[in-house]
Write a structure and sequence with these properties.
It is globular and about 85 Å long. The protein has helices at residues 28-39, 78-87, 108-123, 142-160, 167-183, and strands at 48-54, 60-68, 92-98, 127-134, 139-141, 184-185. Helix 4 runs antiparallel to helix 5. The chain is of the alpha+beta class and 186 residues long. 40% of the residues lie in helices and 19% in strands. Strand 1 (48-54) and strand 2 (60-68) form a beta hairpin. The chain starts with 27 loop residues before the first helix and ends with a strand.
Length: 186
């Protein structure tokens, strides 16, 4: 007896349209204003999680609001984040979410999620450049705050060992004074 198999196939089509004009290269301050424009269109009383896809030169290739939750949290699935980023042809990612309560400081859960996504991104050769948290009037960059913390730790360790400030450390101190001011954007 012959067995006949019926196989049903599906067709998936991804339509990507390029925005008019040139793509903008983003730095820290431009990312915040770009993301504020996206979040302006969303419900303010819910937490939303968005990815911003970048090319090698930090130009935006696309974005997507992936998850929306309640007033205090949203569930985030890394598989969906990286699947979407790969489909959009991202080389780098900026992840972002808002705090409807208005305080942009990261929670311990936010910091754990960032570390997990950075680790997974490294395995896929997708660099997670930053995790930005938007509050009412402020924004918090976990990448900038980590750079400042690393610098201050190095400075404390050098002081404990009795190492005087070198020219390199003085240069970094000037740069990080500016970074400290910008770590909590207003």
């Amino acid at each position: 007896m012959d067995t006949i198999y019926n196989i049903q196939t599906i067709k998936v089509r991804l339509k990507v349209s390029e925005p008019p004009g040139r793509k903008k290269t983003l730095d820290g301050d431009r990312v915040i204003s770009y993301l504020r424009g996206i979040y302006r269109k969303l419900d303010e009383d819910q937490e939303h999680f968005t990815i911003l896809c970048l090319d090698q030169k930090n130009r935006v290739t696309g974005y997507k609001v992936l998850f929306s939750g309640g007033t205090t949290q949203t569930t985030v699935d890394p598989k969906i984040i990286f699947r979407t980023a790969l489909l959009m042809g991202a080389v780098k990612l900026v992840i972002c979410h808002n705090h409807p309560g208005g305080d942009s400081r990261p929670s311990p859960d936010d910091e754990q999620l960032t570390a997990r996504l950075e680790s997974l991104g490294d395995q896929l050769c997708l660099k997670v450049v930053d995790h930005i948290i938007l509050g009412d009037r402020t924004a918090w960059s976990l990448a900038r705050s980590k750079a400042i913390d690393d610098f201050l730790t190095e400075l404390r360790e050098n002081r404990a060992r009795g190492v005087r400030r070198t020219r390199r450390l003085r240069r970094r101190a000037r740069g990080h004074a500016e970074a400290r001011r910008l770590a909590r954007w207003s």
